[in-house]
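Hi support team,

I've been running sequence recovery on a batch of backbones for a student project. Most finish fine, but this one hangs at about 90% for roughly twenty minutes before it completes. I'm not sure whether the input is malformed or the queue is just slow. I've pasted the structure tokens below so you can try to reproduce it. Let me know if you need the job ID as well.

Thanks,
M.K.
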């Protein structure tokens, strides 16, 4: 299958998806699928790869291909700032696939614009246009465990992370082993809404209802006994939000 990645890179699907465990860094709201384990490793990889990260810390999604094989090497996606309501994930069954770029070259890949995560945090879906939530993707390419690229009209227009609570972490650290607690899944969905527009705007404007929701979630995370590693990741972000905007 041929797809377009970013603003013009043609790629062909392969039978070799990435095997790395996804890391959902909640502090910086980024999904990392890569072999490297720190920012220095990410920087070293730049000299060995090509793709959409045209300079360090650019505002693109990071899709990197190996210079020698042109095979997909790593991914870093960023959760957009706007949360929307949407129907449950739909569309074709995920097809496990790697990607091989047709040519060596740099390209742009703007970050997605909107995301949806249901109440149970079954999946986190990010798309370049809110209108795409009303359409089924033409294909779902499973390029890593629980990570799908969403293809519309031949172009990659978003991505999805299944069971995002499972991969919760801080920075480049490996996620905790074992499945998340049901309470963690609920809290993750609430936290994603609290740190994104439009709800975070109401927090910054000292809206009483928004602040009540914020404090309820903070208390629930602080008092949660099970799955403490993941709860601590969420609590650190929520408590910082309170510190930053408390009057």
């Amino acid at each position: 299958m041929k797809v377009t990645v970013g603003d013009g890179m043609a790629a062909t699907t392969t039978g070799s998806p990435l095997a790395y465990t996804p890391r959902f860094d909640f502090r910086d709201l980024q999904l990392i699928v890569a072999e490297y384990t720190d920012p220095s490793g990410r920087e070293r990889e730049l000299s060995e790869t090509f793709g959409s990260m045209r300079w360090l810390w650019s505002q693109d999604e990071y899709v990197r291909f190996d210079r020698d094989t042109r095979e997909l090497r790593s991914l870093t996606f960023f959760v957009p700032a706007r949360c929307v309501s949407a129907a449950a994930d739909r569309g074709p069954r995920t097809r496990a696939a790697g990607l091989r770029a047709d040519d060596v070259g740099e390209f742009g890949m703007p970050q997605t614009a909107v995301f949806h995560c249901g109440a149970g945090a079954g999946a986190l879906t990010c798309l370049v246009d809110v209108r795409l939530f009303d359409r089924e993707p033409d294909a779902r390419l499973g390029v890593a465990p629980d990570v799908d690229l969403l293809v519309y009209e031949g172009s990659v227009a978003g991505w999805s992370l299944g069971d995002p609570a499972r991969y919760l972490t801080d920075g480049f650290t490996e996620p905790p082993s074992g499945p998340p607690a049901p309470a963690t899944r609920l809290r993750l969905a609430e936290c994603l809404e609290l740190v994104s527009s439009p709800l975070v705007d109401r927090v910054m404007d000292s809206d009483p209802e928004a602040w009540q929701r914020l404090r309820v979630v903070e208390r629930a995370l602080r008092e949660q006994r099970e799955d403490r590693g993941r709860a601590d990741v969420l609590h650190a972000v929520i408590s910082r939000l309170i510190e930053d905007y408390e009057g």
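--
Follow-up from support: It reproduced on our side and the slowdown came from queue contention, not your input. The chain has two domains: 2-166, 179-245. No action needed from you.
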